[in-house]
Amino acid sequence: MAEILKNFIRGQWVAADDAAEDRNPANPDDLIGVYARGGKADVEAAVAAASAAARGWAAASPQLRSDVLRRAGDLLLARNDELGRVLAREEGKTLGEAKGEALRAAQLFHFYAGEAVRNPGEKLNSIRDGVEVDVMREPLGVVGLITPWNFPIAIPAWKAAPALAAGNCVVMKPADLTPACAHILAEVLEAAGCPAGVFNLVMGRGSEIGAALVQHPDVAAISFTGSERVGRGIAAGCAAGMKKVQLEMGGKNPMVVMADADLDLAVNACLNGAFFSTGQRCTASSRLIVEDRVHDEFVARLSAAMGALPVGDPLEAATQMGPVVSEGQLAGNLDYVRLAAEEGCEVIGGQRLNRPGSFQSPALFVGATNQMRVSREEIFGPCASVIKVADFDEALAVANDTPFGLSSGICTGSLKHATAFRRGSKAGMVMVNLPTAGVDYHVPFGGRGASSLGGREQGRMAMDFYTSVKTAYVFAG
């Protein structure tokens, strides 16, 4: 029997009543570990631990908080190779992508180590004589962090680091599919000297652990990344409990390719945006909107590049696209491939690969329209619709015709088109001659519409969500 890796509550590793295996989607015989699956009682214990620690952590010196986060970043760097291999085995990213994500987690902790000692307020003159006004930021208390499977170390880091830097205590629930990376993060924070109860990890099913966090009266805020359907339920629960809420959900991100684009650059940007990380990114380019004058050449070039993309074991150096994260996710992807054909698309690729593991070849849905389900619903796999348009105005209109609004992009050699797209795109993030996926950690991340709700993540703006503003008036006499 494999050792059961436990939850982390009040600075102790705590067993749960249930456990689940974590297996490699590229090789089902590869057991990464057996991880505790907690329940409502574990959430109660974790929230109680966080509540007990909240006053001391909020009152702690900003330097102390900074030092803990800095050490955590250093430890993540020291464990980069190990963490990258675990991530590649657990989620299916290529080893290069996995190590890059692990590096990003360290960078995030180092960035927020700096933010811990930069908690700016304002001192303003009152409109009344003899009165002074101070505007201060204070931590919220206990925050619940619910993280997804597609970035199993970066997203836990970009939620936990600003929450801790602001002086909050954390209860984290990682995705049930990918608990290993979050378990390592708990080990790192323990080794970095994070006080007992300040960071707590409860692994398990979202329907049980997530719901318990949302409903708990002592949890002041919830930050969630995941599907739109689950996000809407969390939003409703937080509204009922008068909790602060931050949601990062789906995307149906457009990449416009104009006739004046460098086609080599455009093909590479679309190949990366649509198919790297197996298309399992909320910022993936899932709608390729192509001007008719270059449509056929673009499709031919992208199809050739897609067909040459090495799909295989993420631990092998030559691999550029790994497996789908699970059999359930793969089944959903293949359903959309069949739907694309039923809706009238020419489907290029997209079949399940005849080898052990959850492997699928990348897919293009050529001849798609923006009204088809495959062009409107998030697939979250290596599938992209190709939509032909007549000109820039139609391209922008099609790009904006979506309930989502996370990321968008354009490939063009025209400054006029680039400027007009940046101004006219109804997305939270706009890329010019770059893939729609790929962001920096020191600037805001987030979207509009059904993609996001609440304050932005990453960068200095992340601190806005994790703090409450207090305005103090003092009569100085």
From TrEMBL:
Keywords: Oxidoreductase
Residues of the Aldehyde dehydrogenase domain: 13-471
Pfam families (alphabetical): Aldedh (PF00171)
InterPro entries found in the cross-reference section: Ald_DH/histidinol_DH, Ald_DH_C, Ald_DH_CS_CYS, Ald_DH_CS_GLU, Ald_DH_N, Aldehyde_DH_dom
Active site: 248
Residues passing through the membrane, by range: none
Family: Belongs to the aldehyde dehydrogenase family.
UniProt protein name: Aldehyde dehydrogenase family protein
